[in-house]
Each structure stands twice: as C-alpha cells, then as structure tokens.
C-alpha cells in the first residue's frame, strides 16, 4: 500500500478550499501544470479519479469527496507531530497582526495549538485593518500578518481564498427598500469596493445606510436589520446569515487573504505561519 504524501494532500485541499486548480496553484506556490501532475499522482495512489469535469472547471468525484475528511485529519496529525518536535525548546516573542475576520474565527484555535507545542513563545496580538497591518509589517513592528490581498507581495507565504457573501440579520431587513441598504467599512476597504462595483455593474440602486471604522460597528448595523454587508462566511454567526436569494443581489468576487512574514521573522514565527497556512482555511 502506497502512503498518502502530505504534500499531495495539501495540494488536494488547496483545490477543495479554493475551488479551482488555478487557485490551488496560487495557494501552494506551484505552477498549474505542477498542480495537475500532483493531482494525477494522488489519483494513482488512491486508485480512483478524484476530480471530474464540472461546467467550465473541475469538481470532486465521490471518491474525492470521501478523501476530504481523511486528508484534513491526516494533515492535522502531521502538523501536531511536526509542531511538537520543533517547538518544545523555542522561545522569544512573535508579534502577530490580523484582521478582525480571523481574530473572531479561526485564529484562536490555531494559537491554542501553537501554544501547546511552543509553550515558551510569547504572543503579542494586534487586530486592525489590512493597510495598517501591512504598513506595520513593513516597518518591522510585526513578525507575521494576515491581511486582505490587494496585490501580490514578495513577503507572502500563503494565500487563503474565500468567497464574498451578502450577509444580513437572520430576521431579515427591518424595512424593504428599492435601493439596497449597505453597511460598509470606511474607505479603503476591499469588501466595500467589491460590493459597490458589483452593484454598479448590475445596475442596482443602493445607499450606504450605515458606515463604521470597525467590524463591531458593521455587526451591530447588520444585526439590527438596518443593512446588508459584504463579508465572508467568517462573519456569519451570532444572528448573521447569508442573504436570501429573493433579494436578487449580484454575485461577489472571491476575497484573497495573504499570510505574510516580516523580513527578520524568527524560526518560531515561520513555524506559526506554516501552521496558519494549513489550518486557517474554512472547511468545504
């Protein structure tokens, strides 16, 4: 019996989480042809096709769907063992910057796992907006940052791609209006630009019903039913859900988040970046 290579499983899950071979290639830092070769090798090991044509792209076969859960469990155990062996004697500090999206959903679980394997490393956490965090990383104030990606950057070590969604209160909008009521962060915000561009392209009228400098403000406005907001699934909890199809809203693009390392990042920060690269993606 041939072993399931963790590198092949990482590439497979990058396809599952990104939805395309091109996004998988970007996420793992390989060429599309190399990704295709890896998927073919994994199919040889498994003995069944994992991907099949689906529309203009490719989707999972039943065997591929079965492999997803196994792959996540195998990589989780692999990561746990790797961290335990590498982190026991590591010390120092890591200054991490993250957007609120990940601070609320995903990052706490990863930091807990890291703390177990690196008990002597001190974590300093800064939550902010992407442009501010990017500037702090460039200035050497942060060792590692998770930011929304506006353009490729040489300090990126991984990419997390998640679809943007129209989100609203689970009770619906407080009032029905002809113009779409929006709750948006103050400029500059990639979600804001994506929403306005999508509505303009669709010829839909809208108005900014609530503005905020923080996600906490957006959450209050959306939860009250004042407005809709464009975010990812990470924002959809505690009474906030994806908008109903009868709202007839235009599709939104994919949001790309980059995990970035500072120039002088220590080995422990690189260990954490690798953990986040494999563990932060939302389950399919």
What general outline do the C-alpha atoms trace?
globular
- Tell me the span between the first and last alpha carbons: 28 Å
Q: Which structural class do the helices and strands define?
A: alpha/beta
Counted beta strands:
12
The Rg value, from CA coordinates, equals 20 Å
Average pLDDT score: 88
Spans where pLDDT lies below 50 across 5 or more residues: none
Question: How would you spell out the order of helices and strands?
Answer: HHHEEHEHHEHEEEEHEHEEEH
Strand content: 15-25%
Largest pleated sheet: 5 strands, mixed
What is the tally of helical segments?
A: 10
Helix content range: 40-55%
Strand order of the largest sheet: 4-3-5-12-6
What's the gist of this structure?
The chain has 284 residues and is of the alpha/beta class.
General description of the model:
The strands form four sheets. This protein has a five-stranded mixed β-sheet, sandwiched between helices. Strands 10-7-11 form a three-stranded antiparallel β-sheet. Strands 1-2 form a two-stranded antiparallel ribbon. It is of the alpha/beta class. The mean pLDDT is 88. Helix content is 43%, strand content 23%. The chain starts with 5 loop residues before the first helix and ends in a 5-residue tail after the last helix. It has helices at 6-18, 21-28, 32-46, 62-87, 100-104, 107-117, 130-138, 190-202, 215-223, 267-279, and strands at 51-54, 57-60, 93-98, 122-127, 144-148, 156-163, 165-169, 180-185, 206-212, 229-231, 240-242, 254-261. The protein is globular.
């Amino acid at each position: 019996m041939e072993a399931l290579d963790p590198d092949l499983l990482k590439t497979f899950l990058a396809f599952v989480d990104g939805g395309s071979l091109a996004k998988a290639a970007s996420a793992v830092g390989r060429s599309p042809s190399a990704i295709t070769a890896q998927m073919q090798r994994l199919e040889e090991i498994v003995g069944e096709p994992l991907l099949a044509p689906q529309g203009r792209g490719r989707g999972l076969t039943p065997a591929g769907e079965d492999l997803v859960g196994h792959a996540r469990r195998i990589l989780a155990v692999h990561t746990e063992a790797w961290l335990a062996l590498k982190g026991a004697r590591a010390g120092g500090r890591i200054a991490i910057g993250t957007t609120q999206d990940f601070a609320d959903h995903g990052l706490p679980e990863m930091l807990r796992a890291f703390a177990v394997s690196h008990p002597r490393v001190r974590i300093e956490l800064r939550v902010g907006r992407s442009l501010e965090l990017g500037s702090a990383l460039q200035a050497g104030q942060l060792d590692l940052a998770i930011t929304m990606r506006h353009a490729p950057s040489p300090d990126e070590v991984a990419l997390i791609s998640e679809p943007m969604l129209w989100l609203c209160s689970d009770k619906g909008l407080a009032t029905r209006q002809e113009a779409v009521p929006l709750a948006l962060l103050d400029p500059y915000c990639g979600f804001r630009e994506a929403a306005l561009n999508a509505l303009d392209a669709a010829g839909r009228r809208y108005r900014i019903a609530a503005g905020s400098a923080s996600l906490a403000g957006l959450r209050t406005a959306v939860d009250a039913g004042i407005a809709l907001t464009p975010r990812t699934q990470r924002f959809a909890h505690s009474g906030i859900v994806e908008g109903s199809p009868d709202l007839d809203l235009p599709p939104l693009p994919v949001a790309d988040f980059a995990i970035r390392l500072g120039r002088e990042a220590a080995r422990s920060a690189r260990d954490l970046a690798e953990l986040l690269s494999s563990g932060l993606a939302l389950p399919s």
